[in-house]
Amino acid sequence: MSASLRSIGPVMLVGAGKMGLAMAKGWLDAGLPPSNLLLVDPNPGDAARELAQDYGLTLSQEAAGLQPNVLVLAVKPQIIDTVMVDLAPVIGPNTLAISIAAGIDIARLSRGLGMGRIVRTMPNTPAQIGKGITGAVPGPDITPADRANADALLAAAGPVVWLDDESKIDIVTAISGSGPAYVFHLVEALAAAAKKMGLPDALAEQLARQTVIGSAALLEADPATPAVLRQNVTSPNGTTAAGLAVLMEGLTPLIEATAEAARKRSEELGRG
User: Which CATH number fits domain 5-169: 3.40.50.150, 1.20.120.430, 3.40.640.10, 3.40.50.720?
Assistant: First the structure.
């Protein structure tokens, strides 16, 4: 079953921060009518006000006035319990809830919202340019139509991966949710190495940044595995081989430890 963003009906987005606004813009660009989207944020920033003005959206400081077909929770996990209490008046019999709050499990969401039609998700920041990927777990009362509506909204930001085991969402959080920060730090580290070896700051940063941008674009365009792409760059006994001999000795266990730390934190957030 597939769904059209034009047919989903009223969508209320609670939390107009960077990720929430990125998702909202993706929905609008993919065909969600502006009249069907309500932004809710008690302290909206300039970006939220600009998006509302550009698209003619309603921006409210509190959730009131309608019972949406889809309620999207894009607030920080530290405040979600308080937010859910305030949402009780807008949850109707036809409301589907989608949460992007890291670490907050379906059982806790269900208790807070008083409903079971919930999809727990973990998008990532490349959603801002339609290059994200989202992990999603359906709650116990989700219907095929609910799943289709959630898929239509989430797919506006990039591919959607549906999981049957909710515990796996903590792994998704550690890999794709937090992963962009790991990649950005790689750019920082490459630039720092270039500076240490004598390149001017601006040139070092340009080389590091464009190297990762180009490599990602090649990875997207070429169906070969990352291992094959790596081997294609690596001449026997060449400069890349010399660098990889150092990098490959320690990178895998370091990334494993990094991801495990993020996964554990996701679990801790869920416990409150």
Answer: 3.40.50.720
